[in-house]
Amino acid sequence: MTVIKLVVGGILPYITLVVFLWGIIYKIRKWNKAAQGKMTLYPTPSTPGGKWRKIIKEILIFQSLFKGNRALWGGTWIFHASLALIFIGHFRVVTDFPILWRALGMGKDDVDTFSATVGGIAGLIILVMGIYLLFRRMVIQRVKEISDGEDYFTLGLILAIIISGDIMRFITHFDLVQSREYFAALVTFSRVSVPADPAFLVHFFLGQLLIIYIPFSKFLHIPGAFYSKSIIYQE
Ligand code: HEM
Q: How far is the CA of 230 from the centre of ligand 1 (A)?
């Protein structure tokens, strides 16, 4: 256990940070150097600023997917919206925001209840949607044909992260004080006490794998969307 804690909590986070930042910078520099020819596949937005309005709309509500496939749009949108909520909620894993809670007139109990409700619901919804997206690939013949090993690997990895996160949320009731102390020590290069909850260690390990994998995988569609859409929707 001590070795696992040392590797997952003491060494891997620094490797994750370096590989992730290097990978993202490398990819963005590559995109910036790539030829960005004017494409005329789509009608040009006529109003000034129309291009960015379209890009933001596409990123927030997946407009073209909505027009193309309503069922997939529903599953995908709910999945990403829950992911966004969970991402915001994870700030509390690292630190707390007493000034913000005071400004909102919320006491510790209110914040904990709010976080447990929203985090818990988002954690369950994303689990159901993740399973739906996986089954869709396995069952619908047309989708099955265009799915490769990487698609299954990424969905499997995300599902394993979600399940271990939900285990902490609903079964082991992970105490966030442990992770806050841990991260405070990690960023100040002090002796870290890595939380011993096995669900935390699995979740954190897989989460870091995901972060390392992002720059080199299809997950890079997140920042990539801004690039591709800005080429497609020329002003
Ligand atoms: C790698 C850094 C990560 C750390 C340190 C971390 C840590 C945690 C912790 C401590 C919890 C329990 C929260 C609580 O019970 O209050 C949790 C829950 C959860 N995590 Fe993570 N996590 C990480 C990455 C991720 C990623 C990348 C995903 C999604 C793909 C994810 C999805 C979830 C889900 C679905 C839950 C349960 C619902 C919730 O509490 O929000 N986590 N995580």
A: 32
Of all protein residues, the one whose alpha carbon is nearest to atom 41 of ligand 1 is 119
Q: Which atom of ligand 1 is nearest to the CA of 83?
A: 29
Residue 122 exposed, middle or buried by CB count within 10 Å (0-12, 13-18, 19+): buried
Encode pLDDT of 189-213 as tens digits. 998 899 999 999 999 999 999 999 9
What is the tally of helices (H) and strands (E) in the chain? Answer: 13, 0
**Ligand 1 pocket check for 70: Cβ under 6 Å:** no
Give the residue extent of every domain in the chain: 50-232
Determine whether domain 50-232 maps to CATH 2.40.30.60: no
pLDDT in tens, 66-113: 887 888 888 889 989 999 999 999 999 999 988 999 999 998 899 999
**Ligand 1 centroid vs 219 CA: distance in angstroms?**
18
pTM of the model: 0.88
Is the distance from the beta carbon of residue 218 to the nearest atom of ligand 1 less than 6 Å? Answer: no
Grouping H, G, I as helix, E, B as strand and the rest as coil, residue 3 is helix
